[in-house]
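Shipment paperwork, digital attachment
Item: protein structure file
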Amino acid sequence: MSTDNLIKTEDAQQVANILQSASAQKLVTAAALLVGLLIITHFLVALLKRFLKKTQRISKSVHTLLIYTVRYVLILLSVMIAANSVGVPITAFVALFSIFGVAISLALQGVLANVAGGIILVSGKQFEVGDYIETASGSGTVEDISMVYTRLGNPGGTKIYLPNSALYTSPVTNVTSSGKRRIAQVYTAAYQHSPEEVRAAIEEVLSQLDTVLPDPAPSVVVDSYARTYVNYKCFCWTKTADYWPTIHKMNELMYQAFAKHHIEWADPKVAVVTTD
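Attachment content:
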């Protein structure tokens, strides 16, 4: 047995001996002290939550990690203070925790990697709560960054839980970091319509949408040619919150505008071959 292990064993035995020799009155007093300290811990954590809700100086992504860290540190201090009240020295107590700490760290390497990943994600600010991100495992709006997992939500109502360790070691695309998103919609028109009249119809729709940002200015270009129709691509920018409502409203108004200007979406032709 190494010297370090021997010291740790002696410390653990010292803690056990002190607890066994302590009177019932001291143990009851220590238990009451521990309960009181845990109540104070609960109160302090509740105050921290209220403060974080009111302040805007601390990112929402940090809230969960900060609350968990403060809670567990205060619980550990409460246990150490209660134990010290019955004569357990702090040094022996720390040594006892180190014994369990090594075993727990070996058993929970994956969990600890996720916790470290969460700290890296929050400190690095690759994304925050409310951002829409795209990853190899799924896409969605960041709803929570916990100690172990990051939760994403999507318009379909499903939730995606991604390990923090996977997020900080894999490519992540933050779609909404700038506060605005670009819309790139494709609309088709038959060949008999000139690009000028199709572009005019699309620009008429864009002028009716208050959620389309003037800068960068919207643009309409000929994207590609198919066999019986032309693809026109419409580019415009909106605020992040207006992205999907703008697309849905744009598609609705585009149908009405094409009908108003008598523009056909496409002119599919089918060749029929007959044999005698």
